[in-house]
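stuck on this chain:
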Amino acid sequence: FNIVEIEDAGKGFLKSDSVEKRLAFVREPERVKLLMEKFYGGQEFEPEGFEELNRGEIRYRGNFFTSFVRIGDFSSAAIAVERIEEGEQISYQVDWESWVGYCEMAVEDLIRVKPTEATLLRVRLRQGSYYNYEFSDDRVWEAYRLGFRNSDRSLLAYARRDSKVGVALTELFRDSDLFPYTLKVRYPENARSSDQVEIVELVSQGWIEPLSEIIKEDE
């Protein structure tokens, strides 16, 4: 890993003020272009700005480098950069989806639409204690609360205790009560509550996809 080149990639990414400019610094640009256009609602936007890469909080995982950057308003945010090898060429590309905490639907839209098909979300997951409606039996369900990067809204979420997803989450929460996760949720048919969902798939621990085995609900 070349720290100077990683810093240059982060600086170029955070100073870009349009989708087209930012695409030059992101991983999988062909795939994420449409996601970026949907997220920003147009081609131009106000860039976050770049002040400093925190070299004291560096972590390496496979081909990924993660740390924190101080942006234009002097707040700090996590950033992930992938090392890409193409023959003898090496480049560094920012993971845009984890940077913005990209979700297939905004939480406000989820609450309004209540989709029954699995929807991918990047969330901060905490354990919960509220049981009601379709998820009233705490012997069957484990309760969680989903927090989102770009919203003050939250959702109540439930995993079946005896499912692969439920067992995996219980094991992961032995060591911490708060995790960033990429997962999929869905509403029950004819859901009586707008803020209660079922966790049906654990895509990865963290917001970078994919870095770990995907765990789906039991068939």
